[in-house]
Amino acid sequence: TGFVTYDPGFVNTAACSSEITYIDGDAGILRYRGYPIEQLAANSSFLEVSYLLIYGELPTAQQLAEFDEWIRRHSLLHEEMRRFFDGFPRDAHPMAVLSSAVSAISTFYQDSLDPFDREHVEISTVRLMAKVPTIASYAYKKSIGQAMLYPDNSLGYVDNFLRMTFGVPAEPYEVDPVVARVLDMLFVLHADHEQNCSTSTVRLVGSSQANLFASVSAGVNALFGPLHGGANQAVLEMLDEIRVSGGDVPGFVRRVKNKEPGVKLMGFGHRVYKNYDPRAAIVKKAAQDVLARMNKPDPLLDLAMQLEEIALADDYFVSRRLYPNVDFYTGLIYKAMGFPTKMFTVLFALGRLPGWIAQWREMISDPETKIGRPRQVYTGAAERDYVPVEKR
Ligand code: CMC
């Protein structure tokens, strides 16, 4: 107790050991359970990667089929839970709706008093994976005043989400296979990132033995902020602001370098990557391909590429080792797919879900886990005597 290390932002403090994700920030390397992110993005699927993260190994064909089937069977929301959405204001941010609804799931499934009970953890894992896409699409439907669609369990994970999001009851919905494949790949890229702000939140909340839904709901809220998952929305808003004010990219970069209050190059910089974020490299290429293939050229893509080029040649960014992160190009793809800006961070949350679950499960089965309880350096008043209110 006598000796306390002062480390604001936990820049140098490891709070756990983990076998899930490896990052070498200087070399720009990211691996899930040992597998390079580039190989997973090119060859794997989101459900396969979710299985890998949660259970530790790539599934056999049968294990994957069972996992998929189990998730499909739990995609419905409780009917009473559907009514929750009526109570939110129409312009509610879907991230706030998502975190509230994830928290509310725990009110419907109180099968065990012990949140760490094995069976309870297994079924909670599947329920969460299954219901979050349904909730996410309902948050969107609510915001545009359209009917919420029930899940169609003949469809795969991403296809089902796309149909619930963009489909309407009056017409059959055809999933565009290019959109589905790219969205699946983006979910893979977001699936875990070791002890980032939201994942650390999930672990910290869970360390008090709060249940999985409560812990993940807290993680969603942590992701909401613009320095974390909210950056993908902030990037699009920044690009649009540059476009509206005449496309003056060098002028915007000057404002960033002058450290004008509130002006940052959103989608740039990372606590751990001091080199190109390997996810950003994959997303940049996907953005160029998808926009060309969908025949949806976007002037914001040109602005983004100009911004990157200017920043990477500028001493301010070079000396601070600031590179594009995963959020820099994703929004352009989501926009081309038809998602409104407010949904971008929800898509990040959908992708990050298996990582949160895997990290929570690792935390509860680690014998070294203790309740999270950082220390502080007290800088307040020394002891003083109470003064009655009439004498103040
Ligand atoms: N634009 C301009 N300057 C920046 C930026 C940026 N995006 N990021 C860092 N800097 C500067 C910062 O001002 C500081 O300069 P100085 O040494 O002169 O004070 C220096 O670079 C070091 O930055 P820091 O704030 O100490 O770095 P951090 O590790 O605490 O913050 C970060 C990391 C990601 C919060 C930060 O880079 C940032 O705010 N980026 C913009 C938001 C963003 O894109 N977030 C998404 C992160 S990746 C995915 C995710 O987690 O969601």
What key attributes describe this structure?
binds carboxymethyl coenzyme *A, three-stranded antiparallel β-sheet, Cytochrome p450-Terp, domain 2, 2 domains, globular, mainly alpha, Citrate Synthase, domain 1, Citrate synthase, citrate synthase activity
Structure description:
The chain is mostly helical and 392 residues long. The protein folds into two domains: 21-226 and 341-365, Citrate Synthase, domain 1, CATH 1.10.580; 231-337, Orthogonal Bundle (Cytochrome p450-Terp, domain 2). The chain has 17 helices and three strands. It has a three-stranded antiparallel sheet with strand order 1-2-3. β1 and β2 (29-32) form a beta hairpin. The radius of gyration is 22 Å and the shape is globular. The protein starts with 20 loop residues before the first strand and ends in a 27-residue tail after the last helix. The relative contact order is 0.14. The model has no long low-confidence stretch (mean pLDDT 94). The structure holds carboxymethyl coenzyme *A. The site of carboxymethyl coenzyme *A has 20 residues, from loops. The site of carboxymethyl coenzyme *A (CMC) has 20 residues, from loops. It catalyses: oxaloacetate + acetyl-CoA + H2O = citrate + CoA + H(+).
Helix/strand layout:
Blueprint: E1 21-24, E2 29-32, E3 35-36, H1 37-43, H2 46-55, H3 61-73, H4 79-87, H5 94-108, H6 118-144, H7 157-166, H8 177-190, H9 197-206, H10 212-224, H11 231-244, H12 249-257, H13 278-293, H14 299-312, H15 315-319, H16 327-337, H17 344-365
Helix pairs in contact: 1-8, 2-17, 3-6, 5-6, 5-10, 6-7, 6-17, 8-13, 8-17, 9-10, 9-17, 10-17, 11-14, 11-16, 13-16
The structure holds carboxymethyl coenzyme *A.
The site of carboxymethyl coenzyme *A has 20 residues, from loops.
